[in-house]
């Protein structure tokens, strides 16, 4: 989806959580043509179902796993069944992981701590976005957009104030232009508000 919009994904790596002395997920090879997995013993894990979260489930044959010498390194299932999940968008994640090793992505990722990571920190620490009490994607999206709008207004106010925009002794007045809206909207904010931006 990002590639269709010519957006280059720059994402952090999340190390898979696997018990010690057990095979890692990358030890199971995915066969795109037959839509199945091959385990370290070359047994097939066939497609079983797709759950509501968008994960495709693959299941081994217990008759084969029962006598497998690698069983103790593969599964703790009493039924001798190994299951592996694969998201329907796994190919996109794999492509993003491939790009993670390129020099361009390494350079861009190093800039995250100076840009977007600071924004995320402010969202969580100063704007209560560590969690939400709302339910549903629509309501949570609305809350997030309102918070982002507030943060942008604060940044604009700080920027205009540092420019030394002319103002009277008591009020700091500035105009906010919004693209794609014919009629301009104006916002009058007191000087005390601007002085308190850093503590908000």
From TrEMBL:
Pfam families registered for this protein in UniProt: DDE_Tnp_1_6
InterPro entries (alphabetical): Tnp_DDE_dom
Stretches assigned to the Transposase DDE domain: 38-157
Source superkingdom: Bacteria
UniProt cross-references to PANTHER family, sorted A to Z: TRANSPOSASE (PTHR33408), TRANSPOSASE DDE DOMAIN-CONTAINING PROTEIN (PTHR33408:SF2)
Protein name: Transposase
Organism, as annotated: Paenibacillus larvae subsp. larvae
């Amino acid at each position: 989806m990002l590639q269709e919009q010519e957006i280059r994904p720059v994402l952090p790596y999340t190390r898979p959580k696997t018990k010690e002395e057990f095979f890692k997920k990358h030890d199971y090879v995915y066969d795109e043509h037959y839509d199945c997995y091959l385990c370290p013993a070359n047994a097939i894990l066939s497609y079983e179902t797709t759950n509501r979260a968008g994960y495709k489930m693959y299941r081994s044959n217990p008759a084969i796993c029962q006598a497998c010498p690698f069983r103790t390194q593969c599964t703790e299932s009493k039924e001798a069944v190994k299951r592996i999940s694969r998201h329907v968008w796994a190919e996109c994640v794999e492509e993003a992981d491939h790009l993670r090793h390129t020099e361009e992505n390494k350079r861009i990722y190093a800039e995250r701590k100076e840009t977007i990571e600071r924004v995320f920190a402010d969202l969580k620490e100063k704007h209560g976005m560590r969690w939400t009490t709302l339910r549903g994607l629509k309501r949570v999206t609305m809350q997030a957009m309102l918070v982002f709008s507030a943060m942008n207004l604060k940044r604009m106010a700080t920027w205009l104030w540092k420019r030394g925009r002319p103002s009277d002794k008591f009020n700091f007045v500035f105009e906010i232009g919004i693209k794609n809206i014919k009629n301009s909207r104006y916002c009058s904010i007191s000087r005390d508000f601007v002085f308190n931006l850093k503590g908000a």
